[in-house]
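User: Hey, my collaborator sent me this sequence without any context and asked if I could get a structure. I don't really work with proteins. Can you help?
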Amino acid sequence: MRIHKSTIFAILMMLVAIIANAQEGKFFTHTVSKGQTLYSISRMYGTTVDEIIRHNPECAAKLSVGHELRIPQNNTAIQHDATSDNNNATEKYHTIKSGETLYRLGKMYGITTQAICDANPGLSIENFKAGEVILIPQSADKGNGTAQEQVQEERKITFTTHKVKRREDREDICALYGITDQELIAANPEIIYGKLKKNMILKIPVKSKSQETNPNPRTASEEHSGNEILTLGKEEDITITPDNDTDSNESALNVALILPFLLDSYAPNEQVKMVEYYQGFLMAVKKLKEEGYSFKISTFDSGHMEESLDSLLSSGALDKMDIIIGALYQNHNKELASFAKKNSIPLVIPFTSKEDEIFRNPMVYVVNSMQSYIIPEAASQFVNTFPNANVIFIEDGEKSNKKDFIATLTEELDKNGITHTTQPLSNLLTSEKAERVFRDILVPDKDNILIPSSSSSGTLNTLLPTLVQTRILDESHSLPEFKLFGYPEWQIYAKDTRDQLYELDTYFYVTFYSHYSLPEDSKFQNEFISLYNRNIQNTYPRYGMLGYDTGYLFLLAASKYGKEMHTRINELDFTPIQSGFKFERVNNWGGLINKKIYFIHYTRDYNIEKIDFDK
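Assistant: No problem. I've predicted the 3D structure and written it out in structure-token form, which is a compact way to encode the shape of the chain:
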């Protein structure tokens, strides 16, 4: 019997549907957010890029924000390094479905709601919604007691009741009884989606004395190198004096600073940067002490890149730290990240932006973010700042090194209906050529913005004179006005090109910026000179300022908020000297990454504006 092709196709489609339905429980859905790449998503779930593409072939060509990916559950067992606890091997992921609550998930997986919240520090009432992916921790029978025993233990907690007053919210109630929002929701799962109503009766868990914890613990610990004088290199080289008035108060914040001072060698390029970072850090400590905060600073030399931190991590010197800051080298940060996660100590990584630990370690704070997170922020702020733009991309062939930014910005322009064209740099090599091109592509009553595809000094030095000359020759102002937009690297070249940047009404995005004309910059440099009798180095970034900014922010946040620092760090009223700070979790179970950017504007009246989009 001959079977018609259409019948065969229908049978095949039915089989595909059957197989898909059979496998539905083995997959969950991940929705792509800004800054995520296939690589970062693979690191989040302990799988590979190839595996994600195999189940989502359409994402091989393009990955867009909002795209939904099917992630196979059987390939997402957590990958551990040699120091990890193998008990975590049964962790899995769950995509929250419509109508689900924390309580229902706890019952579904046989674990407590608090265990789910502990495994997902980024989980909150605001983002507990359909489509969010959360980490489900190991089932309780593989840990301390069975799931049933843990639920029974949870039920042993005694409760009191509270009648909701007019205009009272969850935060008020939690503060009144000294409980967390998660504990309130776990006892009253019905409030997770609704507002509190007057006269509503809530169950309030009452902790025994043994269960009560200090939300801002400060434990005194032995000093390790905290009051020594570190002499770097030869006799004529820089000597730094660590914080020699370290507090003896037992409530003082215990801080570890781990940097490659390289005390056993002479490497002035790296040493001077680390010393300057440390000196700026101590300036922050000094200011915070004047404001009434107490610290015990322990300073450690992490040594050379090829060395391990095993001896330090196993010595017990860091066990009771409230916060760790460092280090410089990626392998050292990997060791510190594993230690920080095991001991629940916040780890601040001030320098490198290539930390995979951020995707799976809730204790990590990355200050210098990966470009995949910064570029979407810059593109988004561009369309917000210039909604009436007419963008002209200037292509510089082989020198083009900003293809990711151009592609991301182009996508944003298209979504917002903003026009854009592309011109080769070769069409703008002389003012005569540029004028002919501009008469065709510049639009009156629009923000005509030129954006090179390269951040190189060669491209900038080729383009700037031509553009300035074109404006000068246009004496009748018959050409529409235009601006120039560029990249963080331009602040390096600004010293030699600033007059041209002013003339062209130039903007560029940055994650950190300093300039002597800014009041806070000038004040800091004068104080640095008075303390250390030398100028701050003209580097990119300025390490003294980086030390001050990161030191002040994180020591203040840890002092004020303790274990709640990860949810409240963005609340601090602090104006940094050079860096910007806006931390977000990369996912519910991972660390926090800094996504703050500024626009720097060289105005035609010879001023520099530092545009902060969060003020």
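In plain terms: The two ends are 75 Å apart (CA to CA). You can pass these tokens on to your collaborator as they are.
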